[in-house]
Amino acid sequence: MGQRIVQVDSFTDKPFSGNPAAVCVMKKPADELWMQAVAREMNLSETAFLYRNGDYYQLRWFTPVTEVDLCGHATLAGAHVLWEEEFLPSGRQARFMTKSGLLTADKKDGIIELDLPAQVTEDVVALPGIVEALGVIPTNASQGATHYLIEVDSETTVRKVKPDFSALSQADPRPVIITSQALTPGFDIVSRFFAPGVGIDEDPVTGFAHCCLGPYWQRRLNRSEFRAYQASARGGAIRVTVEGDRVRLGGNAVTVLQGELV
């Protein structure tokens, strides 16, 4: 019998929206080259690989071209599969050991809530090549350890951005988040996420991005809770709560495909 694999749409309650991730729940650790090959074959923004180790699940994430240190939507997808396929009882917290430390997931009022590390940025004056590749005029720009965050004047600008992905990856391989306050009723902030340098031109709904957006907008708006919308073609909604050096992200997940790697 081959390795079971499940595809889940995260940060949505409707199939074929949100952000898709593949999930492999394995019996033991797998070869890194095999995991990268599977992620390349699935050709999704991330594929999650996990196996039980005592009270935890060891968890790793791969894009089609590289392993990443933190991925929110594939963590949410992994927790969803653990509960749905009864690897864990429905009321049990999912606990993951990762390159970003201990991450947890809980079910609360029908929502899966992740506890992830906050990603802090510092304001910068210039982003050579990046602004030109995006074709926007920033109202503010900041930089984190692994990414850039650019604020623009409106949700309309966020939605209309058409990056030159080749120029963007050449300017800097690190991902870029573009954001503004939301105009859409029911939401506080809106964003998009571009990462051509790691093989993802535009990620549909990005947990990692909201680990950055939460602390950023907390400083800007002097509040700690937000309803966020990522305005990709698929789109997705996230509840964001900043608690010190942690960020809680809440969302739904839907299984859309089940199969077996032979």
Description:
- The chain is α+β, with helices and mostly antiparallel strands.
- The chain has two domains: 3-116 and 249-261, Diaminopimelate Epimerase, Chain A, domain 1; 122-244, Diaminopimelate Epimerase, Chain A, domain 1 (Roll), CATH 3.10.310.
- Helices cover 22% and strands 42% of the residues.
- The protein has an 18-stranded mixed sheet that branches.
- The longest helix has 15 residues, at 207-221.
- The radius of gyration is 18 Å and the shape is globular.
- It starts with a strand and ends with a strand.
Number of E-type strands: 18
Element pattern in H and E: EEHEEEHEEEEHEEHHEEEHEEEE
Our measurement of the CA-to-CA distance between the termini, rounded to an integer number of angstroms, reads 7 Å
CATH architecture of the largest domain: Roll
Question: What is the C-level CATH assignment of the largest domain?
Answer: Alpha Beta
Which residue ranges are poorly predicted, with pLDDT under 50 across at least 5 consecutive positions?
none
**Strand percentage:** 35-45%
List key phrases describing it.
262 residues, 18 strands, Diaminopimelate Epimerase, Chain A, domain 1, 2 domains, alpha+beta, 22% helix, 18-stranded mixed beta sheet
